[in-house]
């Protein structure tokens, strides 16, 4: 009798367990829960790991405040949005960039399309999980359908679907980065003044060019450049969006490709345009078209080269041999 009871109890518990795809879908939906937490961010380049701390506040709808902290817990960089405008303040430069708040819907892929693309390229399975930041969580493993390797692990809050922790892996299995909440609260109220920003006295304020998401056939007229798209992309990657930015008085085309998890960014700009992505550990790299440089940033590898009067930069957590293949496929 006892054995039958335990079998029935186990079956009942299994029935209460959500399906992995349901948990994934909930994690991709826009958050409705307001929160206040501290995060630990780590990246793992070849030269070693570097950890950062960030205070993150979110107030629905669309209000946020992110503070990158120094070792003593004081803000080094602040990003604030009231849902309409966004301010980025760099304390070390005493400089503020101000512009329109990013609109997550103003691009070709909404979260539903990202979900469809992700599930087309990845299998999702549930894994056991201890609490994260003292919160009960579902752990998901996302495995490539092409080679079965884990590309990402995420821990999803059981109550509200917020991603509490994530780990990103390269295609060769090496860990690229982790982000996790060390502590988090879900207050019913937050001070609205936290989501407004006044530039400090003496700070330089720069108006940021607003991202303008365009169709491919609009890129040339908007940038003055002849668009160059790769003829080869890794399996599962598709064109996601394109926008034109200004840098040093010059126009830069930013192409985004995605497989639902990872993003491959390609920047095209006039020769001698200076682009700073915070890359480290730069080294010489060789392409069929000539010399290049390979470096590392929190987003992954940074591959840069010049060809036919234009400068190109690829950024992705993909391995360097894959980036080489993409770069060499540009016409």
Question: Outline of this structure?
Answer:
This protein has 331 residues and is mostly beta strands. The protein folds into two domains: 168 residues, Clam (outer membrane lipoprotein receptor (LolB), chain A), CATH 2.50.20.10; 120 residues, Phosphorylase Kinase, domain 1 (2-Layer Sandwich), CATH 3.30.200. The protein contains five helices and 19 strands.
Give a verbal description of the structure:
By secondary structure, the chain is mainly beta. It has 2 domains: 168 residues, Clam (outer membrane lipoprotein receptor (LolB), chain A); 120 residues, 2-Layer Sandwich (Phosphorylase Kinase, domain 1). It contains 5 helices and 19 strands. The chain has a 12-stranded mixed β-sheet with strand order 7-8-9-10-11-1-2-3-4-5-6-12. Strands 13-14-15-19-18-17-16 form a 7-stranded antiparallel β-sheet. A hairpin with a 3-residue loop joins strand 2 and strand 3. It starts with a helix and ends with a helix. About 2% of the residues have low confidence.
Residue-averaged pLDDT, rounded?
Answer: 86
Strand order of the largest sheet: 7-8-9-10-11-1-2-3-4-5-6-12
- Strand and helix order: HHEEEEEEHEEEEEEHEEEEEEEH
Q: By helix and strand content, what is the structural category?
A: mainly beta
Which CATH class of the largest domain applies here? Mainly Beta
- The stretches of 5 or more residues where confidence is low (pLDDT under 50) are 8-15
Largest sheet: number of strands, sense, barrel closure? 12 strands, mixed
Q: Termini distance? A: 72 Å
Q: What best-fitting shape do the alpha-carbon axes yield?
A: globular
Q: What's the total helix number?
A: 5
Number of domains: 2
Please give the radius of gyration in angstroms. Answer: 22 Å
